[in-house]
Amino acid sequence: MKRNWMKLMLIATMLIYCIPQTAQASVSVSARSAVLIEQESGRVLFEKDAHRVSRIASITKIMTAILAIESGKLDEKVKVSENAVRAEGSSIYLKPGEKIRLEDLVYGLMLRSGNDAAVAIAEHVGGSLDGFAYLMNEKAQQIGMENTHFANPHGLDDHEDHVSTAYDMAILTRYAMENEIYKEISGTKIHRAPNPTETWDRVWKNKNRLLTEKYKYSTGGKTGYTKRAKRTLVSTAKRDDFELIAVTLNAPDDWNDHIQMFETAFSNYDVAEILSKGKVKGIKDSHYKNKVYLDHSFVYPLTSEEEDMIKVEYRLKKAAPNEEDMRSSIAGRANVYLDDKQIASLPVYYKVEAKEKKSFFDLFKNIFTSIAGIKNHG
Questions:
Q1: Whole-model pTM?
Q2: Which stretches of the chain are DSSP H helices?
Q3: Which residues on adjacent β-strands are paired with residue 299?
Q4: Contact 233, 221 (CB under 8 A)
Q5: Three-state DSSP class for 76?
Q6: pLDDT of the residue at 363
């Protein structure tokens, strides 16, 4: 589905700073709050009261899962506490004192929404529930979740200040989906885990019905429900190279809400490669012609009407670069505009030709030649 933006004759880099522009699609959802974003650019394609602060129920566990994965302890055995076993609500039926791999706990957390698994993970990774909540809020701040506060690892209604927004949960999911382990777990339909006290394995089927039966483009997500939060849902979908994230809070018809958002976006948008990796073309200034490059491509979802509204402006240093500049600094920036609104600013680098490296054999040969020359002249 990705189209080369050949008519722009541009070359690309990693997105350093992006201002996602909202393009409101025509969608009607049952959710009180909802948002749809594109994975790579973060562009908001649809929103409905997306920044409203609300309870979020078990989609909280996306943060619990990514912190467990990033802890580097997935192969460690977790000893299940009495506190974990007593957790209310959905459960994977852990037993006090049993030892289970942290990775299996994350599967139980994401597929079956085990609150006992959430507590066991929090105690092992954070040292305590309060310690883990601190890690959750620290991560939320790092990735830009501005209207979120976590008070527990599972999303139960046991704290008044455990809240987020549809947009913040989309930011979290976008971050988590960059992790291959999280992506694999989130998209798993069935997982088997050893059961230390029985002769049979635990078998967990994912509760996300979009993934297991309802939507062929679904790639994962997390369900949630409490009496106060009502139905909450985060889901991801991919068609060709177009990856989307949908979030709904307090949505009585959430499965259909998500399908409708995904289908509308897939029908109305295409992912365009606006900037391509490599040498920057089309620059006439002799100081920079064939001497600057972008190190990653930049793609962005566009409607057909928006294709002619894209402009790229290169802002390069006015003075001719000296040798030190070309070794160490950025030549300037490539600014991308959609309908005169800036959507990205990307660094343009000097392209320095690597000096030829001599091998040890060549060095030895040169030394030997020099010695031989001295003897001949003697």
A1: 0.84
A2: 61-70, 82-85, 102-112, 115-126, 129-142, 166-176, 180-186, 209, 254-268, 323-328, 360-377
A3: 273
A4: yes
A5: coil
A6: 56
Q: Is the pLDDT of residue 351 over 80?
A: no
The token pair at 215 is 């939507």
| CA-to-CA dists, residue 237 to 27, 66, 178, 260, 377, angstroms | 17, 19, 14, 12, 77
Q: Give 251's contacts (C-beta < 8 A, 6+ positions apart).
A: 29, 30, 31, 32, 34, 230, 231, 232, 233, 257
Give the Cα separation of 316 and 23 in Å (integer): 30
In angstroms, the Cα distances linking 295 to 26, 274, 292, 329 are: 36, 14, 10, 14
CA distance 268 to 273: 16
Position 53, amino acid: V
Q: Is 61 noted as a catalytic residue in this protein? A: yes
If we measure between CA atoms, which residue out of 295, 298, 318 comes closest to residue 310?
A: 298
Q: Where are the beta strands (DSSP E) in the chain?
A: 3-4, 17-18, 33-38, 44-48, 77-79, 99-101, 190-193, 202-205, 218-226, 230-239, 242-249, 270-275, 278-279, 292-294, 298-302, 310-316, 330-338, 341-350
Distance of alpha carbon 135 from alpha carbon 72, whole angstroms: 15
d(CA 298, CA 276): 7
- Catalytic-role residue among 61, 207, 230, 291: 61
CB 54 within 8 A of CB 148: no
Predicted confidence (pLDDT) at residue 356 exceeds the cutoff of 50: no
Q: Encode pLDDT of 268-294 as tens digits.
A: 999 999 998 888 887 777 777 777 889
Chain position carrying tokens 């690892």: 153
- The residue annotated as part of the active site, out of 41, 113, 186, 297, is 113
* Helix axis angle, 102-112 to 115-126, nearest 10°: 140
Would strands 218-226 and 202-205 be described as parallel, antiparallel, or unpaired? unpaired
Taken as a whole, the chain contains a residue count of 378
Distances (CA, A) of 207 to 218, 268, 301: 13, 30, 30
How many angstroms separate the CA atoms of 206 and 186, rounded? 9
